[in-house]
Amino acid sequence: MADTLGTASSAVESAPAAFRVLQPGQRWADLTFSVALVGQTLLLLLLATLVLSRKLRARNPTLISLLVIAFVDPIPPALLIYAGEVNNPSPPFGLCFTQAVLRDSLEATFVMATLSLLVELYLRTRVSDVFLGLSQRKWTWIAVVVPYVLYFTLVIISVVLGAKHHEQVTHPQDTFGCLIDVPSFRHAVLILEAVVISLALALFSTLTDPTYLLANANTGSVLNANTAVFVLYNVGRIWNTLRKIGSAGSPDIYLIIRGGGFTLFLLFYILLNALTLTTNTAAAKIVPVIYQSIMPLALFLIFGLTRVKPIRVNLGFFQAAHPPVFRMFYPPGLSGDIRTWRGDRAT
Q: Could you list the residue ranges that cross the membrane (predicted)?
């Protein structure tokens, strides 16, 4: 290991200054690993709250699924760090192959899980109890399962490609991890992620309309199906609208806003990944890795904070300083189960 680090250090010293700053080395590996570990710890506490807290009368399965995937997502990129091979240009093939397969598959799954959350919220707030012959519960579980179906599909494709092209399973020295360097596959996965992100943003646009949010803040009615698609161009207006609504907005409204916000966060990650395919520089390769390590922490900050105060720890679990956004909310027209209503609407 010492020889490997010495060789890597020599290569760094001989490189241009700008390249040396961003060259993968132990300091950058330690940084990304530490940031991801902090985010994973917070996500684990948030998951424990959602699953175990008695104060939550209903859970959102798609949100829990997204948090689980976000918790697992930093593990594959860190496999070489765990094994002490991050600076080795030729790590063991089995380790390198495993990392490449899991890494590419999980990234697309992460993006799909975000879309599934917004789809589930759309179906729950915009359609009746039965849609295309399936109940709301069945649609919810379909939304939960689809990302995992995509994951196993990509794993199988990656395994087949890696088995056929051993020489394409490489560990470039300007990245922290291994990859299956088959351009057609990498481009296809990136295009898939871009399409999914575009669908999620379009869905977010239809789910949010400032005029509707103000008009229906105290009614709990189903979102208007004829809302205008202007949200992405009026982020400031939406923020001011939510401040006016205050605690009168339904939990679904705030969950939709959080889902849309995280979708925008993922959009920048997809753009950075696209940059790595067109720009062969150290910065273009390292910045997406650092950005990815921030994702668990970003997810916690977006979904784990209330509108005013952060969730505070009490007896080892989280208690929300405001009514939690995690309860499933069914307008009266969709469900007769009053137990799923917010506390200030219960009778």
A: 31-52, 64-83, 139-163, 184-207, 213-235, 255-277, 289-308
